[in-house]
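Quick illustration, no need to memorize.
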Amino acid sequence: MTRVATIPLQRTMADAIGKSQEKLALTQVRLSTGKKASDFADLGTEAVRNLSTHSMLAKQQATSVVAKRVGTTLDLYQGHIEVVEESASSLRTLILTAIGTGQSQGLQSDIEAAFDQFRNSLNASEGGKPLFAGSQTDTLPFKPLKFSDLAGLDPADAFADDQVMAKARVDDNVDVTYGIGASELGGKLFDAFRTLADGGAIGAALTDDQKLVLQQAAEQLANGLDDVNSVNAANGRKQAQLESLVSRGEQRALVLQGVIENNEDADLGQVAIDLAQQKAVLEASYSVFSQLSNLSLVRYL
């Protein structure tokens, strides 16, 4: 004889309610965190791939930070190089004008002002460290403090930089050597300023000897400007290289982030739909369970 009872049915419904509550709780967690899983173990077969992708993304972000920092340094180089180029070019124009007219009123002040700009640019710093010093960061790369100090000064005594340049890893297996020495940038311009200092103070009218000195200085300035332009061009090529690497790195980072998001991030739209459905199912289960709990054979006997 088949036994009739309501307890087994109630037990079955209670188990079903428990499973519905568990699904709803999981969906609520996904909604609050925006993630499919609470840890990598819950990702299953995608866990290894995502761990590897996280590692690749961290490495890419680190190299991008280095590349941007080097790019900033190269921008600073460019700014100071352009100041040197502009001041030297302007000074050469003033000297040629004075030679052509024979009038040199204020030329001495212009020379000294150009030297001050030249000295300040060569001794420029970043974070308290001289930009143009190479590895000799404990001293200024260009020693003379006044224009008058240049008279008879040997270039070896004027510059304190070296040719040791910095190197940075800016991409996978890509190292960039960067840096500019003060003597590399301003060596020939120094010769022009020293020639002017050796020639003595210039008054309102030029003597024949002073014209010869100015002609020699103008030629030296032209040679020095050639070096400045070459250094600036080399610096510009490194800037272009870094910009390309930074752009490529950002694109690679987006791809890696996309892989991570596809495997880890929850579809919040679908989560909202699931939440509504699971809530409705749970409420229906509560209602059915309540109705079943009120059933009794006594009423029908």
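The two ends are 17 Å apart (CA to CA).
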